[in-house]
Write a sequence for this structure.
């Protein structure tokens, strides 16, 4: 079953270039482990009214792979270091039978 995670929080850096560099470094470092555990997509958004507000939507092939990857304390520390405080992370699964497009 495919699923997504939503990671939302306030970026630690108020400099957009520094925040982007930090994010890209983390993605480059964690991508191999993400893919090995069934991560298949990572989309990044900014709040139009407040660019320090960060939102990422990640697609996963299985809950087991997601749990294995995100359960690693070093992964949690790496991702968490990008934020000013604890980000909100939620897991979303498809609603079977609901129409989508």
């Amino acid at each position: 079953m495919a699923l997504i995670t939503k990671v939302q929080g306030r970026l630690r850096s108020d400099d957009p270039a520094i925040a982007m560099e930090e994010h890209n470094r983390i993605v480059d470092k964690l991508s191999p482990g993400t893919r090995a555990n069934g991560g298949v997509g990572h989309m990044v958004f900014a709040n139009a009214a407040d660019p320090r507000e960060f939102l990422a939507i990640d697609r996963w092939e299985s809950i087991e792979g997601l749990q294995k990857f995100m359960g690693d304390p070093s992964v949690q520390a790496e991702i968490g270091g990008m934020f000013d405080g604890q980000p909100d992370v939620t897991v979303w699964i498809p609603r079977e039978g609901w129409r989508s497009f």
Summary: The first helix runs from residue 16 to 36. The mean pLDDT is 96. The two ends are 18 Å apart (CA to CA).
